[in-house]
Specification:
By secondary structure, this protein is an all-alpha fold. It contains 14 helices and no strands.
Amino acid sequence: MPVRSPAFPLPTVPVAGLLRSCHPLPAAAVTVFAAVLAAAAGRGAAGTALTAGAVAAGQLSVGWSNDRLDLRRDRAAGRRDKPLATGGVPAAAVTAAALTALALCVPLSLAAGPAAGAAHLTGVAAAWAYNLRLKGTAASWLPYALAFGLLPAFVTLGLPGAPWPPPWLTGAAALLGAGAHFANVLPDIADDLATGVRGLPQRLGPRASAALAALLVLGSAALLVLGPSGHATPYGLTLLALTAALLLATAGAPGRIPFLGVLTVAAADVLLLLTRSAAQATPW
């Protein structure tokens, strides 16, 4: 018996629009950062892949929920770079994608062990709290600091004996997360204020937020360089000098340039972790 075509075409979801709605660049950067931490800590290929999968699922859920919850504000601000705001992807599809990614994040996180899973899911919950409420408060920086600061714990608590990461590594990750928040918000401050979003960067203004972003990220790099041994190697000193120069050059730049500068510094930090773990029997 022949199968009839439906009277109405089935809805399709534009894959490109869905991908753009997940904040792909930050999601990829955080996932790579977590994977490098796992590899440097000796989690092995399977453990590193599991870490990356859990973090990727969490980041996708956060990115999609952010755009979905900001839909009205993005439309009011005329955001042409947001597929949801322009009608390029259905809101229901983004909602379903966010919830699916969140559902996958839970077992993937807990597969690393109960303590490790709890650490990562606490970070994901903090990011969702930012999207749901804290984005418009003076505590907008806190979910970023908490979520990033718990990433090293997610990695190390999955090791035999479930050790906590060293304080300098937790501090460096937390400072990097807070700095990324201030840098990421910079180009949207005017639109945010117009639509009622008053997080800490919006309250401080662009100039102060740019300076604070640079100081936080520089502090993160300094902890990575000085934390393990208390003194800087020639590579570490070079990294700090280049970090300071890059942040100084990009802090007052327009658009997403300050945020890209933060990502560049994060990539240098990742390289530092890799070189250190390659030179030592234990990475930290």
